[in-house]
Amino acid sequence: MKTIKTFSLSVISLALIFSYSSTAIAANSDVQEVKQKLAAAPARYRGCEHISPTKCKRLFLNEDVYQQVLNQYGSVRKYTNHLIQVRSDGNDGLIDSSGEIVLPLEYDFYPSFSSSYDIPKQVVAISKDDKYGLLNRLGEIVLPIKYDRIEEIDAEVDYFYALELADKYGLANKYGEIILPALYDSISRRFYLSGGILKRDEKFSLIDAQGKIVSSTSYDSLKPLDDDLLLASIKERFGVIDQQGQTVVPLKYQEISSFNNNIAYAQLEDKWGLIDTSGKVLVPFEYDDIEDFDSSSYAVRQKGKWGVIKPNGTIVIPLKYTELRNAYDGFIRVGNDYKMGIINYQNETVLPIMYDYIGEFDDGKFEVRIRGEYFKVDQTGQRVE
After folding, report:
1. What is the CA radius of gyration of the chain?
2. Nearest CA to 215 among 187, 235, 188, 195?
3. Of the candidates 294, 351, 300, 355, which has an alpha carbon nearest to the alpha carbon of residue 328?
4. CA diameter of the chain
5. How crowded is the C-beta side of 92, counted as CA atoms within 13 Å?
6. Which class for 219: exposed (0-12), middle (13-18), buried (19 or more C-beta within 10 A)?
7. Is 209:194 a contact under the CB 8 Å cutoff?
8. What integer is the mean pLDDT of 364-374?
9. What confidence tens digit (pLDDT) does each residue in 159-200 have?
């Protein structure tokens, strides 16, 4: 009985061992299957970039082509509805839905530009051997791969491509068509509502919204002003042109400031006056100097004395001070003979011109200095501690 019992236990033990081994083998088989599936999953989906596997599969004629392409290339992405961009060994190219090569894998693609236009790009920049060109949506190289650099220019109403070749610049439109050959010293990287600026042989011209030169006149300098106007000069004489190249202010002035509220100060025969954007003279050219004083008036100097005028020429502060400065808070700091005082905008004396120094108005007081002593006075000139 003892022997039988022992045998029975041994059989049971063997059965348990066999059962455990089977379970272990089955578990190990499941693990292997899972591992194989996990290993297969990246291979199956590894190439689809920025697109779901389902949508990626729809790009191809059938499942076989789809699998072949994914196994062959390291990167697969949609280029257009009929073309697929693929990458292998660090190079990009294009294939069609049957897997046939449309553009050899010899290039680098640069499809992302800074333009804010929410429309598909007509071309993308591609490069080979450190040279750049443009590729259209049909997979055709529309701009030869020979340029040192290609940069997109946002022109507000459209966009262009600045082309650099041997330190010269040209311009292509959004379809990759040459508008201006690479013969120019510079092309503005910002186009305004109607155009930009072009430079060649130290002369400047204006380009319209289509990238074409709008005027045969070449300027010695050309730079944007306010309100879509440009400051132009020829032989050190300045004027203003509009974005169509039409002269708005004759090119006869020695200097012209930026326009503020359609008004600028200008210098003619060493004297200053005020003009508007139509070229009309608002204040005659009779002042030795002129500066912005506040938003609605100007500080002017004549025969060594400063005062304040309005844009129509009306004098609001007489020209009788050797120093005049807007001190804000309704006060104007004035000076004569190295002494300072304060007046208000009604030309009334607040502090007489007797101080060696007057600081900012703070908490109802001015800090002043007389004969080396600093103290504070109120708006009546009374000393306060």
Report:
1. 39
2. 195
3. 294
4. 139
5. 19
6. buried
7. yes
8. 93
9. 889 999 999 999 999 999 999 999 999 987 766 555 688 899
Give the residue among 72, 88, 73, 76 at the shortest CA–CA distance from 51.
76
Distance CA 35, CA 12 (A): 34
CA 106 centroid distance within chain: 32
Please name the residues in contact with 188: beta carbons below 8 A apart, sequence gap of 6 or more: 153, 196, 197, 198, 207
d(CA 171, CA 370): 66
CA-nearest of 71, 102, 77, 107 to 91 is 107
Alpha carbons 307 and 295: distance in angstroms, whole number: 16
Query: φ and ψ at 215, to 5 degrees?
Result: -145, 145
Between CA 8 and CA 300 the distance in angstroms is 122
Cα 150 to Cα 295: distance, rounded to the nearest angstrom: 43
Q: For residues 310 and 331, what is the distance between their CA atoms, to the nearest angstrom?
A: 17
| 304 DSSP assignment | T
Residue 248 CB-density burial (10 A; 0-12 exposed, 13-18 middle, 19+ buried): middle
- CA–CA–CA angle 337, 340, 345 (5° rounding): 120
How many whole angstroms separate alpha carbon 323 and alpha carbon 337? 9
Nearest CA-CA partner of 104 in 137, 128, 78, 133 = 128
Distances (CA, A) of 4 to 8, 17, 58, 352, 360: 6, 19, 70, 131, 116
Nearest to 60, CA basis, from 98, 95, 86, 94: 98
* Cβ atoms 299, 308 nearer than 8 A: yes
Mean pLDDT of 64-79: 90
Spatial distance between the Cα atoms of 197 and 179, rounded to a whole number of angstroms:
14
pTM: 0.66
Q: Strand order of the sheet with strand 141-147?
A: 75-78, 84-88, 91-95, 101-110, 123-128, 131-136, 141-147
Pairwise CA distance, residues 377 & 380, whole Å: 8
